[in-house]
Design a protein that fits this description.
By secondary structure, this protein is an alpha+beta fold. The chain contains 2 helices and 4 strands. The radius of gyration is 14 Å and the shape is globular. The chain starts with a strand and ends in a 27-residue tail after the last strand.
Length: 97
């Protein structure tokens, strides 16, 4: 079962920040600066955590995973509401290579 997560990070080194950003692009939608919306299975979440764990310095950096619940529970009512520019959720049925 897929769960919806907001993943946000605060990385103190520009090179590590770039590596974390490139990693996150493969797992979700870039919403704002260091914020991504991700639809993750349990296995994908474990892999992403391990990849990020290898990139960050734990005494200097922070990554937060905010679980919003099952993806299915957000089909009728979006999990994200935007003020200003509209938020356009990614179509996960389309694979981008």
């Amino acid at each position: 079962m897929l769960a919806l997560y907001i993943v946000t990070y605060d990385i103190s080194d520009p090179k590590r920040l770039q590596r974390v950003f490139k990693t996150m692009r493969n797992y979700g939608d870039h919403l704002q600066l260091s914020v991504f919306e991700c639809q993750l299975s349990g296995a994908d979440l474990a892999i992403l955590r391990e990849k990020l764990r290898e990139l960050i310095h734990p005494d200097e950096d922070q990554v937060l995973f905010i679980r919003l619940g099952p993806v299915e529970s957000h089909r009728d009512e979006p999990a994200i509401e935007a003020l200003g520019r509209p938020y356009a959720p990614r179509d996960y049925s389309v694979v981008v290579l």
